[in-house]
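User: Please check token order:
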Amino acid sequence: MRSIKNILTAVLGMTLLLPMVSCKKWLDVQPEDKLTEKQLYSTPAGIAEALNGIYLDMGKTKLYGATLTSTLMDVFAQRYNVGTLHNLTKYQTYTYTDKSVMADLDAIWTNAYVDVVNVNKLIKSLEAYPGVLDSKSEAIFKGEAYGLRAFLQFDLLRMYGPVYGTSDSTKVSIPYYTTAGTAVNDILPANQVMNLVIADLKKAEQLLTNDPVRTTGVNTPGPNDNVNFLTSGRNYRMNYFAVKGLQARVYLYRGDKISAAAAAKTVIDNAATFPWITPGKILSDKANPDRVFSTELLFGLQSLDMYENYRDNFSPDLQDKQILAPLDARLKTTYENNENDYRYNPEWILTGIGGKSYRTFFKYADLVDKTTIYRYVMPLIRLSEMYYIAAEAYGDLGYLNTVRNKRGLLNLPAGAVLNTELQKEYQKEFFGEGQLWYYYKRRNLSSIPNPLSSTGNISMNATKYVFPLPLSETSPR
């Protein structure tokens, strides 16, 4: 296992951020292994290459390309029918002492902190080589970097930190890194990490005050356009509204409903920037359905491994011991047998391939048109979550009904129990996005749906909700 010290030393000793910086559209100067740091940060294209490399790395299988979205995090959330013969049984039973499980949790920790180190190196380098970018562009780059630093370490807190609450917020959690260097930071109490996350997001918000997304919108590029992420495709970057959305998520996790509602409301008041999916794009377009509801994304990544991950985990021709798919009865319970829900039939298809009598997951299946702009897009923060946060913070079913109406569903009855309906919505809305696990942990639910039955539950506790820290971090230094 690689300790934080090993990560810091290895990354900071390189002339480049990492070999992950590979998008040739951004940089055409010298072969990457011959670039010095000064050369990399001496041109706007080089700086863009460095930042783009972090985004690309986050979108790989090992992090948000699959592990922290569609596969392991959703297995931990009991999404799939992982029986005793399945390859991932130890994960579904929270057997954190199993060698394979330990290795994957260690890899999450290591890879996330590698990107944190790279973000810090980017911020430091922007300050060390001033004047390469104009002031507006530099503010946007730095704002994105501060937002990414908070995003990554907040997720690490949600995984490895305690169940956050009045009695547990002072328990030790993770280290938080804000500077580039080789010094190893102490493991902090969860509330101190939360303070640092919030501080980074406030800084990001200030730096992104003039983000073009606030005036010209996302500005979605065409399939043949040269993308300049400073001005177009802003929802594939940690833009101003993504920062506000992340603030809402963070504040709600902390239990600060007033601040969460205010941040969410900022996004909701600008919802036209992220238009709701239309029935035509999800139901009528059979060849290229927008199953990720891309127009609604405040933040998403390009996951270039997406279709390999689909074939390895969700393709209907996989054996039962390999495929990630729910029990059919459980899936029907989740969607309340409602065929009108836009999230149901388009994303879950009964193919009959391999004699399968259950539906399989098509959300991340490939499209016919390989130039489609939402191909490879992995959702990370979406508009609907802001309405869910507002509903919970204000205790208002109206926000929940707005999302339901945009998913082809009717309003809830006036006497509906808000928390019950919110849980149903999280279960429907975020399949394959990893967010359900965090919802369960935030609510500290004592039981969650059992994927091996249509209606039963399994018991939960802090031992299951908290990932163990890697041994490399807990052993004496």
